[in-house]
Amino acid sequence: MSQDAETNEELLQTLQTGVASKEGQESGYQGQLSDAKARAASAATEQEQAKVKIAHLEKRIKEEEPRAKKAKEQNADLLKDLEVLKAQSQKLEAQLSKLGFEPGQEEAMYKQETTLQQSIRKLRQEADALKRKVANIDFNYADPTPNFDRSKVKGLVAQLFTLDKEHTAAGTALEICAGGRLYNVVVDNEVTGTQLLQGGKLRKRVTIIPLNKIAAFKASAQTIATAQKLAPGRVDLALSLVGYDDQVSAAMEYVFGNTLVCHDAETAKRVTFDQNVRMRSITLEGDSY
């Protein structure tokens, strides 16, 4: 009982004075009360700060709510559009499948296009090379007089004859036989030739062959027959190997009428140096005797 009384007395003293009477209780209840008040004040401050944050967030919610609603509506429209596009894509894929389209086919076509373009470039280069090679037969002129009759100008010798397939082996020999005359211009008469030279605006110098003035020479049938007897089937008159129109026959005789085309050098020597022939001969390889 005495201990309980002592405890009660101590509690009463502490409550009245705020000071503990025993060691270890120096803070007393007054100190504890002060601490409690301080914590309460701090909690109140935090509560006010929280209220401010809540008010701010509520304000933002009110501001953002219409935007969120609008975004939701837009998103719904986008999703709807996406579904439409998916359906269209599936429809197109089905159509492509019916047309025989295969994945990777487009890439293969691009590769093929590249290959074709390379081939085209190569062909153009070859065509340009051929153009340069045959530049000498590119003959153009302007009408030297009003209402000029272009039929009077027959063209270059090289453009006026043909070579049958069976005689293509003689091409080199015929080219050497004709020489520079291949690029002579054949006209009907000397008047046309003069008009062409004076008013035709020719890009380069040319030699004119007037059909009415040309001094053509054609080997006799007897001489040709003699040559062919010396080498049967191995010699021909150059003129007999080409085809041409009768109206330019004089020009063709002038160019090809006095030369033999032989299969080989032995034949060429035999006929050329024969006393009864004595004609110029050219082999298929292009050797001249």
TrEMBL record:
<feature type="domain" description="SMC hinge">
    <location>
        <begin position="151"/>
        <end position="272"/>
    </location>
</feature>
<protein>
    <submittedName>
        <fullName>SMCs flexible hinge</fullName>
    </submittedName>
</protein>
<dbReference type="GO" id="GO:0007059">
    <property type="term" value="P:chromosome segregation"/>
</dbReference>
<dbReference type="GO" id="GO:0051276">
    <property type="term" value="P:chromosome organization"/>
</dbReference>
<dbReference type="GO" id="GO:0005524">
    <property type="term" value="F:ATP binding"/>
</dbReference>
<dbReference type="InterPro" id="IPR010935">
    <property type="entry name" value="SMC_hinge"/>
</dbReference>
<feature type="region of interest" description="Disordered">
    <location>
        <begin position="16"/>
        <end position="47"/>
    </location>
</feature>
<dbReference type="InterPro" id="IPR036277">
    <property type="entry name" value="SMC_hinge_sf"/>
</dbReference>
<dbReference type="Pfam" id="PF06470">
    <property type="entry name" value="SMC_hinge"/>
</dbReference>
<dbReference type="GO" id="GO:0005694">
    <property type="term" value="C:chromosome"/>
</dbReference>
